[in-house]
Amino acid sequence: MDLSGKKQQIWDELGKIVDPEIPVLSLVEMKVIRDVRIDEEVTVVFSPTFVGCPATSMMMGEIRTRLMALGYHNVRIETTFSPPWSTDLLDAATREKLRQFGVAPPPSSADDLTEALREPVACPACGSAQTEMESSFGSTLCRQIYFCKDCRQSFERFKPL
Amino acid sequence: MPIDFPSHLPRAAIEKLLLAMADDELILGHRDSEWTGHAPILEEDIAFSNIAQDEIGHSLVWFTLLQELTGQTPDEMGFERDWSNFTCCRFVAYPRGDFAYSVVRQFLFDEAEKVRLEALRHCPYAPMKEAAGKILREEAYHVMHCRGLIERLGKGTPESHERMHTAIDTAFPQALGMFEVLEEEEKLVEAGIFSGHTMLQAEWLKAIHPILTDATLSLPIERTDSRITVRCVPDAGGRRHSHTEHLKHLVDDLQQVYRSIPNTNW
């Protein structure tokens, strides 16, 4: 296999690893994989969502295991904060998958957080805009709790970051 | 992993700053986690648990940068170090106390962290600058949450106001210990890493004063148009390893499981 074939193979494999807290999304869809480089070793450039997220070490372990199974024994995972991960990176298809999973997607831009949190949030179940934030923290670091006044259910929303 | 450290920057002084920040975050994160299952309302239980997880995550970022310079791993620093070698300020190690005290402490800490990170965002040491930018984005949630609580509890009922007031009287002199000048700090200022803790303290006071005033809470300070003068003695010493026994108990607790089965893979 030539270099670009190997790279593709690695990206495809990374696309099969799911986020343990959001099992409908892969690491590639989550945009936490910034780059893949191959020389004497394979370097996976990783950009964590929330740095305190306990799923990060699981993801890194899974990356090593999967690449090892493909025959890449020298795998280095390089963490980058430049630029920092942002929910703005998530594309439309990923946002729709989140919604179907029951988590309201983040706003299109999280640049100005105050502004982003003011934007109305549609209930992922019934689509109503009659919702309000219950808590800016939730069951995981990347979620917050909302309440839908129409279907009278609490739901979670991916925290703008 | 060894890195190419820019030779014109003060390496030892940068290590001291990284360690102070890492220790503050680790110890406060541990204290915050003590509210899990015990906070007065469910939302606050979740909030404090989230904040604890964030702070411990941030300590890991600083410990990882420190590892690049010293070779010591975050686990060695967190779980194998004697409590007397921590350089956190005393403020973060005090027991969680009344809920009002924990709210005030988190508010005062996060506002201080915000001014420090904003300064470090422009620092010439790239790994520190990038980490500061990342952490600052996450901290925005803490700042927003704490400001909201200060307002609600300050203006809430006579009881909530009174308890917040007592908490501020206790916490404020302790909080000044966050700005204790580090050893070799002048080298950091000279290299343009940041403007120093005395300047940060002034910026912090400028930020918190109007928020507390709006919430009908006051600080033991005197304010004229041009400057704010503090009217109490800072409870400092932590940066120079002068701690209270509270830190010893906390570190015992923090390290207990790790030390009970050394060299285990978790």
> Mind telling me the CATH superfamily name of chain B?
Ferritin, core subunit, four-helix bundle
Strand content of chain B: under 5%
CATH class of chain B: Mainly Alpha
Mean pLDDT of chain B: 95
Number of helices of chain A: 4
Biggest beta-sheet profile of chain A: 4 strands, mixed
* E-strand count of chain B: 2
Helix content estimate of chain A: 25-40%
Question: What radius of gyration of chain B results from the CA coordinates?
Answer: 18 Å
Structural class of chain A comes to alpha/beta
CATH architecture of chain B: Up-down Bundle
How many helices of chain B? The count is 9
Biggest sheet, spatial arrangement of strands of chain B: 1-2
Biggest interface reads: A-B, 24 and 27 residues
Describe this structure in words.
The complex is a heterodimer of chains A (161) and B (266). With 161 residues, chain A is α/β, with parallel strands linked by helices. Helix content of chain A is 27%, strand content 26%. Chain A has helices at 3-14, 55-69, 92-101, 113-118, and strands at 18-19, 22-26, 33-38, 42-46, 75-79, 103-104, 131-135, 143-148, 153-158. Chain A has a four-stranded mixed sheet with strand order 6-9-8-7. In chain A, strands 3-4-5 form a three-stranded mixed sheet, with helices on one face. The longest helix of chain A is centred in the middle third of the chain and has 15 residues, at 55-69. The model of chain A has no long low-confidence stretch (mean pLDDT 95). By secondary structure, chain B is mainly α. Chain B has a single domain (11-260), classed as Ferritin, core subunit, four-helix bundle (Ferritin), CATH 1.20.1260.10. Chain B has helices spanning 11-33, 42-70, 74-80, 99-120, 126-154, 158-176, 185-190, 197-214, 245-260, and strands spanning 221-223, 228-230. In chain B, strands 1-2 form a two-stranded antiparallel sheet. In chain B, a hairpin with a 4-residue loop joins strand 1 and strand 2. The mean pLDDT of chain B is 95. Chains A and B meet through loops of A and helix 2 and helix 5 of B.
